[in-house]
Amino acid sequence: MKSFFFSLKTSFTLFVLLAVVFGVGSSLAQLSDAKAVFKHMTATHLFHCLEVMGEVPLVASWVLLLILVSIALFINVVCCTSSQLRSLFKFRHKRLRMGFMAAIHLVAILVLILHGLDVLLVNRHEPIKLHAGEAATMGEYQVRVLEVTYSASPLWVTEDQAGKKINPMRFSRDDFSKGDNRARIEISAPGLSPQVREIALLSPVRMGATFFFLETFFIAHGDSRVGVEIHYSYNPLAPIFFGTYMVLFLLMMVQFFITMREKEETHDEFY
After folding, report:
1. Tens digit of pLDDT for each residue in 93-122?
2. By CB neighbour count within 10 A (0-12 exposed, 13-18 middle, 19+ buried), where does 109 fall?
3. CATH class belonging to 126-234
């Protein structure tokens, strides 16, 4: 078992298995029984979905498999990193390259830890439907919609009596402009003067560690007004995630150039 977790073949196998698990999850999300569960999982905290997942054993089994593979990958990366650190002191002539490789392993461990903390700390919430003039409490903030601007086809966002889109919104960059389809919102909180911001699809509004997202537009059955669906999430890890991935990318670039330089030196020595 020890050699299993210290093997690079294990790393490759677990990464492939993780990709397969994600692929299976994408397929499961299309099933009618599982679609609502997956939507709830992505919109709220994972722990809030445990009861719902119990109603669909297939989804519960998939989540369990995802957790087990992730834990195995974390153990594997830790073991390979410890092996890399030991080798760092044995081969002094390769210390620079091996040092950067060890740093890449350490940052990769940090990334895995952050993803685990994401499950515990990040709070997501179901979208709330609002028309212009309406307000809702979102965490510690009060969000009021001041104005909704929508210029695309009403057919894309009109709902039936059950509250589902008759023709789900599918648009291209050419026929949908974020600038012409947006909302102005006012965000307030105790001790904070009201802030007026513009929110659009793919353009969230950030207040500290809280993010507000415009999910979609809607026209309720029997109504002509265009409203917006807004959801919010509390994510204190966002800047840490960004910084960690930037460090990982830079280390991998440096490692690539060091490896290329060593290959060129070896080639020159051979000839």
Report:
1. 566 667 777 788 888 888 888 877 777 766
2. middle
3. mainly beta
